[in-house]
Amino acid sequence: MSLQKPHARRFSAPTATSETQNPSNAKPKASTEWLAIIPDHHGVLDKRMEVRAYIGALLDEVPQPGQSLKICGSAMLVQADSREEVLQAIQRDIYFKNGVWDLEKVQIYPFKCAFRKGLEKS
User: Which pTM value belongs to this model?
Assistant: First the structure.
């Protein structure tokens, strides 16, 4: 098993790091992309927002104008060599460390994306 840390994304714009700025120093990418669906514990919305303001979330229902989002968890894309490395990435996240996520209900799937395209503004 590889000892390098898996790369996790939260469906947001990439940030520049020493690895992206200098590809010759970059570690080889992990062999598999994984989709992790991570539900929140019941009743932790206030704690979730206190830990980190909204950056993306799984929702219980389609948002309606003027109503609060009904957040039920998170989704992550992780590049890693194993399911165990994905779990390690989840356990390093601030939501896990602060008791927001329910790790007993996490779902992790090997993931093969059919296409990648950014969201278009309407």
Answer: 0.68
- Measured between alpha carbons, how far is residue 59 from residues 3, 30, 38, 52, 77 in Å? 34, 29, 12, 16, 17
Report the alpha-carbon distance of residue 48 to residue 40 in Å, rounded: 9
What DSSP element (H or E) covers 20? Answer: helix 18-21
CA distance readout (Å), 10 to 1, 36, 56, 58, 78: 24, 10, 7, 11, 9
Mean pLDDT in consecutive groups of 10 residues from the start of the chain, 122 residues: 45 37 57 95 92 80 90 93 96 94 96 82 68
DSSP sequence for 37-97: EEEBPTT-HHHHHHHS--S--EESS---TTS---EEEEEEEEEESSHHHHHHHHHHSHHHH
What are the residues facing 18 on neighbouring strands?
Answer: none
pLDDT at 28: 64
- Return the amino acid letter for 22: N
